[in-house]
Amino acid sequence: MKRSDLTEFAIEEEGFKLKICRGAEGTPVMSNGRMPVAVPMAAESAASPQPASSPPANAGLAATAAPQEEPGITYIKSPMVGTFYRAASPESPAFVEAGAKVEEKTVVCIIEAMKIMNEIQSETKGTVVEVLVENGQPVEYGQRLFKVKVG
Amino acid sequence: MIQKILIANRGEIALRIVRACRELGIKTLAVYSEADVQSLHVQLADEAICIGGAKSADSYLRGERIIAAAEIADVDAIHPGYGFLSENAKFAEQCESCNIKFIGPKSNSIKIMGDKAVAKHTVRKAGVPTVPGSDGPVENEAEAVKIARRIGYPVIIKAVAGGGGRGMRIAHNDVSFAKEYHVARGEAEKAFSNPAVYLEKYIEKPRHIEFQILADSHGKTLHLGERDCSVQRRHQKLIEESPSPFLTADLRKRMGKAAIRAAEAAEYENAGTIEFIVDAKGNFYFIEMNTRIQVEHPVTEEVTGIDLVKQQIYVANGEKLAFDQGDIKFDGRHAIECRINAEDPARNFAPSPGTIGLYYAPGGHGVRVDSHVYSGYVIPPYYDSMIGKLICFGSSRKTALERTYRALTEYIVRGIKTTIPLHRAIMSDPTFIEGKATTAYMEDFLSRTPPDLFS
After folding, report:
1. Smallest Cβ distance to B51: which of A51, A60, A140?
2. I need a surface site. Which of B18, B200, B254, B395 has the fewest CB within 10 A?
3. Are the C-beta atoms of residues B419 and B340 closer than 8 Å to each other?
4. Domain check: are B77 and B152 in the same one?
């Protein structure tokens, strides 16, 4: 954004709008190791904003990764804050891969919080379409973990 | 050396902490609920992690999720703000055991001062005057009535696990006592999961005067003067000022020394506040200690020039306080704070959440606004109704009053109802202008002032 010298720009696509504004004099960056002034962003999206795939991420940046709702598709979301693991241990196979069929009580992953390994259940009956986070990635509450085709 | 702080709070205090951290070059992590995605401090913090759903019980009160966020983001310290988990001894203990610095006192100090009956007992041993009352929780109704008669009516029945003005009932005689006793216990059970209550003599029309304490971990405890918070509605503060128009220099000195003794009795570190009630004759009594930074801390900051949130961080860092009691000057500066709430004074202060259409805050010499709201901001209905604080200060109380009135006339908040007109009316009210307000003031003011003058 700095290179383009724009002070304001807007994207409008089906499903979400993103508007970025900079302050009148642009964004000063302090060079003495202090934090630069953050750019305030007002994100409006039709779907509820989802965090970008590399948390911890500033909520304002999240709007860029808000996909629209598709029919017949649901998401398994994280019920807690912690670290996401695909398998029970480094040597074990992943709980589920894309294409796997799941029931409500199927364990789909582990989220480790404060040294406790929590088994996360699917709570949905269907087929895993996509695994949305990587092994060992920190996740926040509400973050989408798996894309599931219901049924 | 603290390099990254997790802010376990929201709204204006979270913004306040982000600001102090940025000036100190400390990285910030905001944890937030799904209802606070568009919150100003979340946007300004370096990092942000969602910790739960809109309801506080599902987010800001989830200590385990906050600590999990602290671990994955590798923070050095957690600032709990006020409310939420700031006075939760268990949470402070969990931080301690996870090696994350809790920016506040030791968990044991929170425990001592958190039980209001234990707190009273502790400070009394240190020679701090307390209100005559039961020595700890009352065992049963029969004992309670006996004590009430010994103290003398009217008595106030308080929840042992309460605080912040909640869980209190007043009884004027034996007949009403029986009823109020049971109601108080029921309310305490519901609000604090602990039905235990204690009794105190009810001091009529007292002034609420509190002292700001700052203590480091090297044995130095100071007070930064008092704040008069007598203007309250249903025990919730509306206006705070410093210095108190009631205190003499002598009374200030004696109360300040008592406040320090009370804090030392709990081995207190970091920022805290000792609350007293003062009767018309100048007798003062300890009622409780707030073991956290308070909403009204800016009043003290503007009178003393000391940045309390930065001092909290320095103390948490293990540094010695850089000044002594003699360095703190009260040389005539006066500050007044008005709490701006999203409430409709004309409809019995019903909360007024919703979208703020236009927001314009006042400015100019001697005007400070601590607020997290902005034009277009949607006030979520899940939390308290305070949208900002207006703090005006000057070289005399008269200047501070006039400035507050002037600033309130400039303050625009469209789309919701606020207490701005109420504050304007109070600033014009002779009783307040003359410095005569006690804790009975608001009820009196509301009963004699036509509603269209303050809404």
Report:
1. A140
2. B395
3. yes
4. no
DSSP B256: H
Read off the tokens for B243. Answer: 């210095």
Q: Single out the residue of B253, B407, B446, B294 nearest to residue B437, CA to CA.
A: B446
ipTM of the modeled complex: 0.76
Q: Per-residue pLDDT tens for B247-295?
A: 999 999 999 999 999 999 999 999 999 999 999 999 999 999 999 999 9
Tell if the CB–CB gap between A58 and B67 is shorter than 8 Å.
no
Which residues of chain A carry a pLDDT beneath 70? 1-68
Report chain B's mean pLDDT, rounded to a whole number.
Answer: 95
Cα gap B455→B452, rounded to integer Å: 5
Q: Could you tell me if B43 lies within 8 Å of chain A, comparing CB atoms?
A: yes
User: Among B67, B86, B105, which residue terminates a domain?
Assistant: B86
CA distance A57 to chain B (A): 6
For chain A, domains (ranges, CATH) are 8-65 (no CATH), 73-150 (2.40.50.100)
Nearest by CB: A142 against B44, B47, B50? B50
- By the 8 A CB rule, do B56 and B390 touch? no
Who among A57, A114, A141 is closest to B71 (CB)? A114
Residues of B within 8 A of A140 (CB-CB) are 49-51, 69
Same domain for B234 and B168, yes or no, is no
Residue B372 lies in a domain: yes
Dist. CA B293–CA A144, nearest whole Å: 36
Instruction: Give yes or no for a contact between A88 and A108, defined as CB atoms under 8 angstroms apart.
Output: no
Backbone angles phi, psi at B167, to 5 degrees: 70, 45
CATH number at residue B145: 3.30.1490.20
Among B154, B176, B201, which residue terminates a domain?
Answer: B201
CA A150 to chain centre: 20
Q: Which residues of B touch A56 (CB under 8 A)?
A: 29, 47-49, 69, 72-73
Rounded to an integer, the average pLDDT of B105-109 is 97
In a domain, B155, yes or no: yes
Residues B190 and B213 in one domain: no
Total number of domains in chain B:
3
For B130-174, how does the pLDDT look when each residue is reduced to its tens digit (9 = 90+)?
Answer: 999 888 899 999 999 999 999 889 999 999 887 766 778 999 999
- Strand stretches in B364-439, DSSP E: 367-371, 378-379, 386-394, 412-413
Find the mean pLDDT for residues B350-376.
96
Give the structural domain span for B30.
4-86
Whole-number Å distance between alpha carbons of B137 and B119: 12
Answer yes or no: is B50 within a domain.
yes
- Both B306 and B254 in a single domain? yes
